[in-house]
Amino acid sequence: MSGVDRVGRAPAIARDLLAWFDARERDVPWRRERDPYRVWVAEVMAQQTRIDTVRAYYRDFLERFPDVDALAAAPLDDVLRVWQGLGYYARARHLHRAARVVSERHGGVLPSTVEGLLELPGVGAYTAGAIASLAFGRPEPAVDGNARRVLSRLFDLAEPTPATLERSARGLIAAAPDRAAAINQAVMDLGGAVCTWRAPVCAECPLRDPCLARARATQARRPPRRRKAPRPRRRAVAALVTRGDRVLLVRRPADGLLGGLWDLPAVPLAREDGGEPELRRVLAAYLAERLAIAVRVGDRLETVEHAFSHFRLRLDVFAAVWRSGEPPRDPEWTWASADRVEELATPGYLRAIEPHVQPLRRRRA
Length: 365
Hints:
Number of helices: 15
Strand content: 15-25%
Number of strands: 7
Structural class: alpha+beta
Mean pLDDT: 89
CATH topology of the largest domain: Endonuclease III, domain 1
Shape: elongated
Largest sheet: 7 strands, mixed
CATH architecture of the largest domain: Orthogonal Bundle
Oligomer: single chain
CATH superfamily of the largest domain: Hypothetical protein, domain 2
Low-confidence stretches: 1-5
């Protein structure tokens, strides 16, 4: 009997799952929401982010942007500033772009169907299903990473493709279509609290009896493990302070890692790039070519490592002295005082670098 065929037992599985979910009563503020905009914001924030981390950001974001039209009218810099520290900044950019689409084309009202939601920038299958079920009560699945793990183990799926996972989730929802939102949330909660990656607590699982992976002792192989994280990516970073206690910042390209944020100028490094003399040469050459400025790169101030979800970033930070030239309009750039830096949306690792920049500010003031 295949995992999907086992959905024939879906009524009993759904009953036990909902009983477990109803007994938990987790204090997650946005689960009491039915406003589509608030559900949307919450679901985007909660992707790949711990619920406890999201709580404060969710409250602050809604205070600053209480509805779709307020978010659509706001400058992107303001949105990124409120989002600062939450990470995965592409989520904020897509949310802002989609809000403008909703405001301009839909009168500020989110589409209520999965098909309509999928037409919005940055909205994928999971987010569309979550909004459709939680905000509009539609019997649509929402399969995130936790749900993928639960369904893969429950039905012992060796190759859990999106289509197979969707069919499995729909089978559960069909057993209780009026509680689609609760089914989706219950599966996700189960993955986060019980059916975890490293140590699933099968003895506490409400689905331990029908779980095929438990019966076959394949829990550790379901779903298949991802490859190990690659070596850290490296960058040489210039802390370039000029007279007046100001540091040079450039805006990162809108598309890509940390898109739209203000950052110290930096050059990606190849693995073969060597010691400090070579790094100083590479950084000076990059600043001359990309920003049209001549600098003298001095001592290394610090090496900072920052962890992202799928890789680590190593930043070798060097003091630099401006000699001549001025950056062109592209990329955007600014000389920013310490107070101005605090007002801009910047990467989280800048807080680790700033203490090493302060002595340069005092020296150049």
